[in-house]
Amino acid sequence: MSIEVDWRAATSGPDGEALAERIRSFIHDKFQQVALPRFIRSVQVHSFDFGTIPPDLEVKDICEPFADFYEEDEDDETSDVGDATTGKEHGSLAEDEHLDDPMTSGHPLRLPPRMRERRPEDFQVLCHAKYAGDVRLSLTAEILLDYPMPSFVGLPLKLNVTGITFDGVAVIAYIRKRVHFCFLSAEDADALIGSDQQEARGQDDRPWSSADPTASPKRQGGLLREIRVESEIGRKEDGKQVLKNVGKVERFVLAQVRRIFEEEMVFPSFWTFLI
């Protein structure tokens, strides 16, 4: 069953602007925690825009929420809307079927987390999500030039991350006054909704190439199929950029965007919204 999303209503207005700012701030903070290569002094994330094109959603299943969503956090009562929380440190749904004996696994024994009580009205929706929209992330990376001496001067590189295409399974769970949201890895998606996801990926998993040098290659089995970046560095002379060799910076930024997405948005990580 397909779902039509009123993307403009969902992403505009005070609530939409607040969510966009929270995502911008979240990604900015993640970049501040990254060890930068020596040729980059700093990275600043300036804006996040949802764009105007909605994702295509198809409901695959309605079921009970994952047990991870019932784990209580110490700051449950004071957590803010849109905070990203992690259900587990490691693992996947497939791995949960083969739990190790804590007495023989060699890992220190950990106390089980406190769990909220399940209620009959709790539910979870699994959706096949396809996206090829115009979401945009704008940031600036300051590049260090080593001529005529090391770290002689820094030039700002303006980057717009866009052209994102996505194909995967989204999870939306409603528990009390909270909505938990995340994506599933390809392995977990196949385990839960069958092989039609693999068949749908089919030819998309072939080696990908493009004449556009700013487009990143597809990762085998990755949820983010494609990301492009538009760049502009330093001042311009006669309409031409002073420096053009910014490929290393572009690749670094795109790699970090992928990493942040996969670490913070793919189960067992998830975002929780208070409603």
Automatic annotation (TrEMBL):
Alphabetically sorted, this entry's keywords are:
Endoplasmic reticulum, Lipid transport, Lipid-binding, Membrane, Mitochondrion, Mitochondrion outer membrane, Transport
* Membrane-topology annotation of the record: Peripheral membrane protein
For the keyword Nucleotide-binding, the answer is no
Top-rank lineage group of the source organism: Eukaryota
Q: Which CDD domains match?
A: SMP_Mdm12 (cd21672)
* GO BP term, pick one: phospholipid transport
Matching entries from Pfam families are given as: Mdm12
State the compartments where it is located: Membrane; Mitochondrion outer membrane; Endoplasmic reticulum membrane
Residues of the region (Disordered) are 72-115, 197-220
The Swiss-Prot or TrEMBL record annotates one GO molecular function as:
lipid binding
Q: Where is the SMP-LTD domain?
A: 1-275
Q: Where is the composition biased (Basic and acidic residues)?
A: 86-96, 198-207
Task: Enumerate the InterPro entries for this protein.
Answer: Mdm12, SMP_LBD
Main location (coarse class): membrane
Cellular component terms (Gene Ontology): endoplasmic reticulum membrane; ERMES complex
Which PANTHER family has this protein been placed in? MITOCHONDRIAL DISTRIBUTION AND MORPHOLOGY PROTEIN 12
> Into which family does the record put it?
Belongs to the MDM12 family.
Q: Assembly and partners?
A: Component of the ER-mitochondria encounter structure (ERMES) or MDM complex, composed of MMM1, MDM10, MDM12 and MDM34. A MMM1 homodimer associates with one molecule of MDM12 on each side in a pairwise head-to-tail manner, and the SMP-LTD domains of MMM1 and MDM12 generate a continuous hydrophobic tunnel for phospholipid trafficking.
Please describe what this protein does.
Component of the ERMES/MDM complex, which serves as a molecular tether to connect the endoplasmic reticulum (ER) and mitochondria. Components of this complex are involved in the control of mitochondrial shape and protein biogenesis, and function in nonvesicular lipid trafficking between the ER and mitochondria. MDM12 is required for the interaction of the ER-resident membrane protein MMM1 and the outer mitochondrial membrane-resident beta-barrel protein MDM10.
- What is this protein called in UniProt? Mitochondrial distribution and morphology protein 12
Q: What is the scientific name of the source organism?
A: Aspergillus oryzae (strain 3.042)
Q: Which gene produces this protein?
A: MDM12
